[in-house]
């Protein structure tokens, strides 16, 4: 059975474009290995994420 989780958070630092790119490289590899899919939106210091995968 697949599960989905969504959440909103606020960063305690200002991310630069390269910070986001580095984070995406690491999480893309982890998520692929763990068969996790989803979406991550970032605007100013706010994140919205929806992830789905097996429990």
UniProtKB/TrEMBL annotation:
BLUF domain sequence ranges: 2-55
Taxon lineage: Bacteria, Pseudomonadati, Bacteroidota, Flavobacteriia, Flavobacteriales
One GO MF term attached to the UniProt entry: blue light photoreceptor activity
Protein known as: BLUF domain-containing protein
Pfam families: BLUF
Annotated source species: Gillisia hiemivivida
SUPFAM superfamilies, A to Z: Acylphosphatase/BLUF domain-like (SSF54975)
Superkingdom assignment: Bacteria
């Amino acid at each position: 059975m697949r599960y989905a989780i969504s959440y909103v958070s606020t960063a305690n630092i200002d991310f630069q474009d390269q910070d986001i790119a580095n984070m995406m490289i690491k999480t893309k590899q982890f998520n692929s290995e763990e068969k996790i899919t989803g979406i991550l939106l970032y605007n100013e210091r706010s994140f919205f994420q929806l992830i789905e995968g097996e429990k």
